[in-house]
Amino acid sequence: MVRRDRPDPALYLGRGKVEEIRGHLLRSGSGVVILDAALSPVQQRNLERELGVAVLDRTSLILDIFGQRAQSREGKLQVELARLQHLSTRLVRGWTHLERQRGGIGLRAGPGEKQIELDRRMIGQRVKQLRERLRTLDSQRRTQRRARRRRDAFCVSLVGYTNAGKSTLFNALTRSSTYCADQLFATLDTTSRRCFVAPDVAVVLSDTVGFIRDLPHALIDAFKATLDEAAQADLLVHVVDGSVASREAQMEAVDGVLREIGAADVPRCVVFNKIDLAERGAGVERGACGRIDSVWLSARSGDGLELLRGAIAQRAQEQTAEQTAQEQAARESQPASERSEPPAFIGTTP
Predict the structure, then answer these.
(1) Long-range pairs, 126-133, Cβ under 8 A, ≥24
(2) Which residue, among 281, 304, 273, 301, has the nearest Cα to 161 in the 3D structure?
(3) Are 120 and 200 in contact (CB under 8 A)?
(4) What whole-number distance in Å separates Cα of residue 258 and Cα of residue 117?
(5) Nearest by Cα to 230 from 209, 256, 213
(6) Cα angle for residues 175, 179, 185 (degrees, 5° grid)
(7) Angle between helices 224-231 and 73-87 (to 10 degrees)
(8) Of 16, 50, 210, 247, whose CB count within 10 A is highest?
(9) According to the 3-state scheme, what is the secondary structure of 101-121?
(10) Is 99 within 8 Å of 115 (Cβ atoms)?
């Protein structure tokens, strides 16, 4: 922990703290330094020169974790796009023997282009290719979403802080076997499955990427298509780790990301997971009109899952009733001549 009035423009840390870290590196033999902060390109480069080892800031570490977790083609494309966007701000001279390429006939005309300019152009071309591929995948995702709408399926998305138990809850509700583990960002790819909550209620449940405090904007931009699944949902189930003391701060971080992706106004139901660790029983909390606003449960043991199914079914039935009322009001507001009525039988009297 470092306490300063403001970060140092050149090193982020003070000169004395940098000397202290160098001493720790010599004693431990470590080959990397990780800072829980966003460093500017100049600060990162200066720290690496001073310490003689690789320096990772918060954004670089999250990108590395995402790179290890990505499994699907879309996930790998999104991570590569985020990495290139982050790298484009940190280009330095990497090849001294190619520092400047001379152009023209006989290599005598003009200084040509620096290697950093060539690197920047290649990164720009690759970013353009990745965006085109992601747009194609996004189009396919929108087609799938329209198909679910035509089937009148109630779409629910699981959102929450990373490692809150979203994938475990997803498997418990859909009886699936998607990968879940006690680690950060175990799920990067959106997975959708049909979920039974009540008879005659069609529900499609989607598991989304976990959020984290100060999520890098490059990741939000790269994962826009994936996060759009939450913005287009009929209901967001906000999964919270109910066993940690920092759950309020985690909820605020999730709310911030939801506002940034345009999902702040989507109806929400809060699920406090891991009650087995919090030593609390399953239960619900209702709002002023009797609607279930939050559920306490354990996705691992299954305690309280039926309460969540009931809450989702209640929201789905409310939406169906509201849509029916709106359609009825629209029909009644039309002039009598425009209403679709069955044709009258015209015949001859015997």
Answers:
(1) 126/80, 126/84, 127/81, 127/84, 127/85, 127/88, 130/77, 130/80, 130/81, 130/84, 131/81, 133/77
(2) 273
(3) no
(4) 37
(5) 209
(6) 130
(7) 120
(8) 210
(9) CCECHHHCECCCCEHHHHHHH
(10) yes
240 SS3 class? strand
Among 199, 174, 171, which residue's Cα sits nearest to residue 299? 171
pTM of the model: 0.70
Checking if the pLDDT of 3 tops 80, the result is no
- Please give the full DSSP string across 190-239, using - where no structure is assigned: -EEEEEESSTT-EEEEEE-PPB-TT--HHHHHHTHHHHHHHHT-SEEEEE
Q: Which amino acid is at 119?
A: D
Q: What are the pLDDT digits (tens) for 284-329?
A: 999 878 889 999 999 999 999 999 999 999 999 988 888 778 777 7
Residue 231, class by beta-carbon neighbours within 10 Å (0-12 exposed, 13-18 middle, 19+ buried)?
A: middle
